Give the backbone structure.
Amino acid sequence: MRRAIFTRQRRVTAFLVMLLGTACTAPLPPSPTPVPTPVPTATVAPTRYPADVVQNFMNACQRSGGTQAICGCVLDHVQTRYTVQEFSRLEVQLASGQQMPQDLLNILADCRVSAR
């Protein structure tokens, strides 16, 4: 059981680092016209990943060239949007060649812009 959790945490960390790599190397899209943010219909408390997943991500992210601000931003947004289980499933889908969902691309772009 402990081994399965450790393996899942390593996959999630690796996937988060891959996302950051995309965020750091992809060109920024042109600045869009501001659109009002829709008001959420339900408030969902952010899911916090286990401390070792967070630490592994931050270490790997910064080693791959991300700043603490960008790495923290990506992690905060991903934790708010995805449970660890959802994110793990998403990682498997992307590893099988499926396209990255637009909401993840938006997170990456937002974090790059806010870190300027």
User: Anything to note?
Assistant: The first helix runs from residue 2 to 25. The chain has one domain: 2-24+48-114.
